[in-house]
């Protein structure tokens, strides 16, 4: 393959970042604009063909560092200090044309949300070969041949023809692999993977992860792998760098970081998820009893729930587990009355609930609350925290004015947030705080049951851990029952009393936690359990070879 | 309240001009040097210290008529815009939230109204009905509300599927709360930018109607009518018709500058507290 303009290639490490400093201007409420430091004095080196994992919570600066390797600052972010040496030269001395020559040829980027990163109006193949063809690395025909070979290597179905499809015609996991192929197509020296599997189901994540790992090994490309999930990065990285608040916490071999962390913060990351939750035995009549519920979209054409029956006792937690499309969120919609079931009944505190939302009494509505996955769209961005939490108090109990404000303050106390938040808007809160406010809004109604729809899956592990502890604490205090919808089995272990595993609209396994999580497993539960990343080197290979069925999203 | 120092230059310009126009409109009898219909001098007298803009085709003071004209023009345009916004946005939001037959019927009626060219429709209606200020406002307001309906419905359909609206519905909130407390605050930015535009369209529409003789009737002064009265002078090089025309343009620009600024502030999600 004739490579026309030769790529610069120096001796020494491929990427050498020294004392990187990245800043942005922020506009805090009521104050003069000030400059915030996002990344402060971080240095790293990366040898050819090696993988460095960058790990940390949101706001740790890991994506910003990743993008700095291609000289890019996202959203007004400026690289103000230090050197970024790629292939032996300082790329920050480049002009615009120099950056253009570099991006997509020496360094490629794989984004978190492939669905948002692909242009929906162009076929996949056109987008995959674009960089290689535009840089003159390959001719169109050569590039397509290489793309097909990469599709095959990434075990995509129909590698010859998948390039003819549009982005919406393939699944999320496939799209993420196509994006990896796109990054590999122009034979770069370095690929920046920015949380490539975070948005995927666990069962799909494992396939994508394996595909990425194989592709890195076979092509000898170096990679920066950015994620907040230590167990994931342990599978692919040679070295791991832990970041916090834009500063380096710890940098070492993968084995050393996960087995012998030297810093307290790394230790907290490694040992997260270990909440001990003794299972409560089912007692008395259930607070919620779902009997033979069948529901469908499109007037009966698409059956999404088939004959689902579950019970939930007062003050306990039922976890509903499954992949996307398994019907677990639809079950919540059927219970709340947003999607009236076609058949079957929902009994709540001894009353049979009307199938439709609008036929339900105010008490039914009040005692059954819901918390959403995306806290930032679950709150009206134009209402203050005081209004958001105060409205249910006003609406259900008719309490107004000072008494309402006092209750709001009490609730803020309960969710471990101070009084100062009452006048804030949702945009002024962090992700964890937003979810806490949503919890307070649900609690304000004094409910008997709260449906939690993937409440922790959009959060950083440590923050999610805090939310789970808060939920468990509130359950002990208020005796509220949770219907906990999730795809994350690790979360389930730490919160559930009983578990229902769902697949394609049916409950395939249901019972107390201890029984559901004890072998022998059915194939699907086995797949789910095996797909939860473990913080063990070599876990990935074992999990892939040991499973008995392929994941649905593959 | 907005920090006065942070108002951009363009907004200042627009605000000051709007204030002048409004002041002139509200206090017209006090500000105007002469009466509205009072013949004070020669026909089409040139500008002088006594008549800053000269006189019109009947020898009336142009400045005084401009000031009284501002009153009529702005009042009718403002009321028509207010009517179109209240009607259009409430119906549009309701169509989006309620859906079903209400949405279908109201959307088709709006389509039907929009299919007929507005000016011709207004001409037909106004030639049948007696031309009073009230009919003018009603006709202009209802015809304009179709545009607002379209916009409001489109915006509200997007907002209606957000989780926070679903949360409000699950709480058992009525349509009123959902429309005015959940949807309206989030639909405000596109509506406000449209408000400025619609007001200007109303001014232009009214001027066009008056120019065609179906709007404000003489001897009442209004800018469009004044262009019509003085248009014959243009042939003789007399600028009397251009002055009300320029006033229309200036009002259009200044209102839009203010609307832009308001839009900037309302699109901020931190209550206007942190906007660079």
TrEMBL record, chain A:
- Asked if the record carries the keyword ATP-binding, the reply is yes
Record-linked InterPro entries: AAA+_ATPase, ABC_Ni/Peptide_Import, ABC_transporter-like_ATP-bd, ABC_transporter-like_CS, Oligopep_ABC_C, P-loop_NTPase
- Which Gene3D superfamilies did the record assign? P-loop containing nucleotide triphosphate hydrolases
Top-rank taxon = Bacteria
Task: Specify whether Cell membrane is a keyword of the entry.
Answer: yes
**SUPFAM superfamilies attached to this UniProt entry:** P-loop containing nucleoside triphosphate hydrolases
List the Gene Ontology MF annotations in alphabetical order: ATP binding
**What is one Pfam family matched by this protein?**
ABC_tran
Q: Where in the cell is it found?
A: Cell inner membrane
Q: State the UniProt keywords alphabetically.
A: ATP-binding, Cell membrane, Membrane, Nucleotide-binding, Transport
Domain ABC transporter, chain residue ranges per copy: 20-270, 288-529
Look up and give the membrane topology term: Peripheral membrane protein
The cross-references to PANTHER family, in alphabetical order and at most eight, read: DIPEPTIDE TRANSPORT ATP-BINDING PROTEIN DPPD (PTHR43297:SF2), OLIGOPEPTIDE TRANSPORT ATP-BINDING PROTEIN APPD (PTHR43297)
Q: What's this protein's family per the entry?
A: Belongs to the ABC transporter superfamily.
Question: Mind telling me what this protein is named?
Answer: ABC transporter ATP-binding protein
UniProtKB/TrEMBL annotation, chain B:
Q: What SUPFAM superfamilies has UniProt attached to this entry?
A: MetI-like (SSF161098)
Q: Which UniProt keywords apply?
A: Cell membrane, Membrane, Transmembrane, Transmembrane helix, Transport
Major localization listed first in the record, in broad terms:
membrane
Where can this protein be found? Cell membrane
Q: Which PROSITE patterns match?
A: ABC_TM1
Any keyword Cell membrane?
A: yes
Can you give the residue ranges of the ABC transmembrane type-1 domain?
70-259
- A Pfam family found in this protein is BPD_transp_1
The portions of this protein that span the membrane are: 12-32, 74-102, 114-143, 199-216, 236-263
- Record's superkingdom? Bacteria
* Entries under InterPro entries matching the protein: BP-dependent_transpt_permease, MetI-like, MetI-like_sf
Q: How does it sit in the membrane?
A: Multi-pass membrane protein
State the family named in the UniProt similarity comment for this chain: Belongs to the binding-protein-dependent transport system permease family.
Which named protein is this? ABC transporter permease
This protein's species is Mesorhizobium liriopis
